[in-house]
Amino acid sequence: MKQIFYLALVILCSWACTTSSDSTVEIVIDKSLEAEVKDGRVLLIFSRDSTSEPRFGINDNVGTNQVFGMDFENYEAGKPILFDTTSFGYPVESLAAMEEGKYYVQAFIQKHDTFTRADGHTVKLPMDQGEGRQWAQAPKNIYSKPILVNWKKGNDLSLTVENSIPEFNQPEDTKYIKHIKFKSEMLSKFWGRDMYLGANILLPEGFDENPNQYYPLMIFHGHFPSDFSGFRTIPPDPDLSDDDYSARFGIYGYEKIQQQEAYDFYQKWTSPDFQRFIIIEIQHANPYYDDSYAVNSANLGPYGDAITYELIPNIEEKFRGIGEGWSRFLYGGSTGGWEALAVQVFYPDEYNGCFAACPDPIDFRAFTSVNIYEDENAYYQEGEFRKTLRPGHRDYLGHISAMVKDMNHRELAIGGSKSRSGDQFDIWQAVYSPTGKDGYPKPIWDKYSGEIDPEVAFYWKENYDLRYIMERDWETLGSKLEGKINIFCGDMDNYYLNNAVYLTEQFLEETQNPYYDGTVAYGDRAEHCWNGDPTLPNYISRLRYNTLYLEEIGDRLKKTAPAGFNQYNWTLIKN
Questions:
Q1: What is the pTM of this model?
Q2: Residues paired with 114 in a beta bridge
Q3: Per-domain residue ranges for the chain?
Q4: What is the pLDDT of residue 14?
């Protein structure tokens, strides 16, 4: 009996000693900011770096800052928010376990709006403020100035929130680039308030001079674009230094390279024999992420229908798009790669081809490094006598820098348990999951432990596993997708996305009646996000999405466009 008592005492102590810090942390909101605070999440952030605010240094790498998070509701003006010192943190899970020492500390408040949705649920979520749902930069969010603290267990801490993030300046229209903001009736009905879609639009040379000419439409899917990217009407800035370093690509002078590529694209775009078409980049940030994944979702609403049947026809009418499925093409990388393929699969008659580069997992048997149908736990491979963490991020040599558990625990600390982090695993869950009884996305796995819910996995399979859906429905879907599917991925993709492409390719190559008649290609030792050009380094080819697939699109137009389509600019392929 005595041994059982001591064992229980040890277990109790081990939990209490890591969850209680014996400190009081007080968050005071300046009176000038109190009126607009009601519900939200408080982040308490620690950093050793004096050169950047702590809020900008939370990531999946070993050099991340420390963050703890706590939800609050019904804030009372004039009263401080007492931070719950048992709140979950990343990478150190509890405040009590923090190493003592000097830190720059900052409090940050992400505000939540209340949505009364058409499905009968009332939820509290951060609303995009025009920045693309980036919590650390979202206008109206508030924060304290970082202060240097000598942190010791048992010490009290008071932080004053007195700064508010200002509104962004919206880009202006130019001769070639236009911007629209469009109220979606479908999305407004779902969310119970006015909801908008936007787009950055690149018009072809001669658009104003040829009012009777109509154009094919290229939809470039990807993360939230604040303005049209990669198009520059003047040469690179001569004062740019070659000293700026791109850690991602390991090269110097990358800003100059980007400006040169953007200027080169402008010169091609305006040349007399270049193909004439419209390019759009869609803005569909929402309360969960910087874009919607362009499909209908139980938690996000009918974004797929809103984009395909409201936004795109509106753009085509206003800017003289041809307005028929044979004249629309899809491309993009990563999130945009998944979207390009998903939109083609779910709306096969409305689009004439997709070019999906480094797509997010398109077969959930390889959901990054997790098989959601067979694995019991997303974080661990488990055996009889040991368990091993699943990798989440690697470089082209296979060196691992983050685990799936790390990436999810970061989101858990930032956003809590209701998919509100605004980051990758949470948006997959928000898009693909059924709605839970509380109105929030039903978790695919326990965010802390990683235990997978097989019922949610089955829902994902039937509704969003693109390989499975194509295979399940090929008898009726195949003829509509023939010649339209093109997928590209590096075989050392940082997020293991190539594994799902391998599985999808295996199915596609076995298709009959009809054979899929598209392309699947891999970049040797190429990382995220290789998009199909084996002759160029990724840091260049990723800047050429808008010209990379034109030869294939031209071939497709020759085969499928009606006789009345003016093929002139599409038969003179110029590199």
A1: 0.93
A2: 124
A3: 2-164, 177-363+467-571, 368-462
A4: 34
